[in-house]
Amino acid sequence: MDRLVITGGNRLYGRVKVSPAKNAVLPVIAATLLAKTPCFLEEVPALADVETICSVIEYLGARVKKEGQGLKIHVPEIGQTEAPYDFVRRMRASFLVMGPLLARSGRARIALPGGCAIGSRPIDLHLKGFCLLGAEIIQGHGYIEARAKKLSGSRIYLDFPSVGATENLIMAASMARGRTVIENAAEEPEVVDLANFLNAMGARVKGAGTKVVRIDGVDELRGAIYNVIPDRIEAGTFMIAAAISGGDITVENVICDHITPVLAKLQEAGVYVERGETTARVAAPDIIRPADIKTMPYPGFPTDMQPQFMTLMSVSKGGASIITETVFENRFMHVNELKRMGAKVKVIGRTAIVQGVKHLTGARVKAPDLRAGAALVLAGLAARGETEVSNIYHIDRGYESFVDKIKSLGAGINRIEDA
Ligand SMILES: CC(=O)N[C@H]1[C@@H](OP(=O)(O)OP(=O)(O)OC[C@H]2O[C@@H](n3ccc(=O)[nH]c3=O)[C@H](O)[C@@H]2O)O[C@H](CO)[C@@H](O)[C@@H]1O
Ligand SMILES: C=C(OP(=O)(O)O)C(=O)O
Fold first, then answer.
1. Could you name the active-site residues (predicted)?
2. 329 in a domain, yes or no?
């Protein structure tokens, strides 16, 4: 398996362009199943997760063709209504095809996604919503089957503003009979982006980005040309790379409003932040100060930035930082790896107390999941000596050209490909 070898100590300087968002493009690709006529997604990041979702929709009947930086997707008809375990195992977001399949063909059979490193991640809220839309749900042999001749609009209250459940239900409701109202919906920018794409396809989705989303079902959706939003988590990761390496980076193609809490917390830590129209300049301070964070659904501090921020706090000076994870029950998998690099972190339940150290030291560590993997690379940038990060297939899931981008900023990093 490939690994990354990082020689710490280089300050990162320069400009780096953020790619289109993984978490926006995955639901948008799933949504293309709703249209009979072709869709064109103008810029699609080259990510392992994108390949997986494309394999899933191709299996279901889509014709996917790479055109320049984008993808042309045409689903003249749904051939299969089953997404096998092999796909869902590779990427939980595969479950997002359930809503479109149900809406378009009245039937979907999808392998039950297993638990993963960051938590058990149930899908009960998705299923509750599908039931309220009139689907019959049958579970067995590791699969979930949903059937409905025609979905009908309903009022759905989500116990938790789940991003995936909100997206799956918006897609299902877009072709249901009548009006659906989703209450306590997720407000993430990626939900808004999906709604914008669906509306470009002829759907009638209102209120995305607020707690109440109203969807008036239509009989048919058509293909659309679309460009998804920039990746706010990739942007935040580069900002921390600037801060932790003592550097000065201008991140291009960023919507600063999407990462307000990250920018605020960087400033609290003493980092210089300059917001531009579509850029953000981040420059490291002499001393990184401690700052507490608590992850929350949007617009709170994103859980997908928690491991990277913890890494930054691990080299802060002047006290402890308290990091509370409220979104996933097991998202501290990076702590033991960071400790191998000399970080001082104590975990009590869902809280981690981070006491900054003078410097981290290079070590051999394993990426336990996507963002934790990125966090370990950030730790390697700041550490003395050499850090080797293995299991980097996690990083490939969600960061386009990570090594090239970070290298272009001056990092001492190399990918070692195993024979
Ligand atoms: C592909 C994608 O967009 N992934 C993002 C999405 O994941 P995902 O859509 O899976 O995250 P959710 O918002 O659904 O999950 C948040 C919490 O709700 C719980 N839950 C969720 C659904 C459900 O039916 N029942 C239930 O209990 C989960 O276990 C978790 O504790 O949002 C997360 C939270 O911002 C991000 O970390 C992920 O990067
Ligand atoms: C947790 C993440 O992704 P996924 O939901 O695809 O596992 C992530 O992007 O950090």
1. 116 (proton donor)
2. yes
404 annotated ligand binder:
no
Out of 54, 116, 131, 256, pick the active-site residue. 116
- Residue 399: which domain range? 3-19+230-416
Q: Report whether 89 belongs to an annotated binding site.
A: no
Residues 136 and 168 in one domain: yes
Contact 360, 315 (CB under 8 A): yes
- ipTM above threshold 0.85: yes
Check pocket membership of 93 for ligand 2, CB cut-off 6 A. Answer: yes
Is residue 385 a contact partner of residue 364, using CB atoms and an 8 Å limit? no
Q: Are strands 107-111 and 82-83 parallel, antiparallel or unpaired?
A: parallel
The verdict on pTM exceeding 0.95 is: yes
Helices (H), 44-97: 48-60, 85-90
Q: For the residues 24-51, what does the mean pLDDT come to?
A: 98
Q: What is the mean pLDDT of the chain?
A: 97
The SS3 assignment for 325 reads coil
**Would you state the pLDDT for residue 87?**
86
225 inside domain: no
Count of domains forming the chain: 2
Active site residue 116: yes
For the chain, give the percent of residues with pLDDT over 90: 95
- Whichever domain contains 111, its CATH number is 3.65.10.10
Report whether residue 29 contacts ligand 1, using a CB cutoff of 6 Å: no
User: Is 92 a pocket residue for ligand 2 (Cβ < 6 Å)?
Assistant: yes
